[in-house]
Automatic annotation (TrEMBL):
<protein>
    <submittedName>
        <fullName>Fimbrial protein</fullName>
    </submittedName>
</protein>
<dbReference type="Pfam" id="PF00419">
    <property type="entry name" value="Fimbrial"/>
</dbReference>
<dbReference type="GO" id="GO:0007155">
    <property type="term" value="P:cell adhesion"/>
</dbReference>
<dbReference type="InterPro" id="IPR000259">
    <property type="entry name" value="Adhesion_dom_fimbrial"/>
</dbReference>
<feature type="domain" description="Fimbrial-type adhesion">
    <location>
        <begin position="9"/>
        <end position="112"/>
    </location>
</feature>
<dbReference type="GO" id="GO:0009289">
    <property type="term" value="C:pilus"/>
</dbReference>
<dbReference type="InterPro" id="IPR008966">
    <property type="entry name" value="Adhesion_dom_sf"/>
</dbReference>
<dbReference type="InterPro" id="IPR036937">
    <property type="entry name" value="Adhesion_dom_fimbrial_sf"/>
</dbReference>
Amino acid sequence: RNVIIDNINGDNFRQDVPYTITCDPDVRDDAWEMSLTWTGSQTPYDDSAIETDVSGLGIELQQNGQPFKLGTPLKIDPSTPPTLQAVPVKANDAALSDGTFSAYATLQVDYQ
């Protein structure tokens, strides 16, 4: 999908992040609490965004429309997991130019 550099504002170009949580019913106990955490290389200008391979450009993850801070566990109900969306963000002083970019993160589910 094309991203217009001048229109990156932390809202435009938002995309759903598809994921599923599958629990083995023979192992899962409904009394257990589940949490979702994401990790990656955090940008210096947004604690809910990871760096891309383009300096000054990041990808913010949002859960149910709110920033999802890196490394912060979010309690979830696996039967109704939160909607996750990724949106490009940029540093205030970023001078971006046309080109491709990529970013990598890990989404982890824990239970206790």
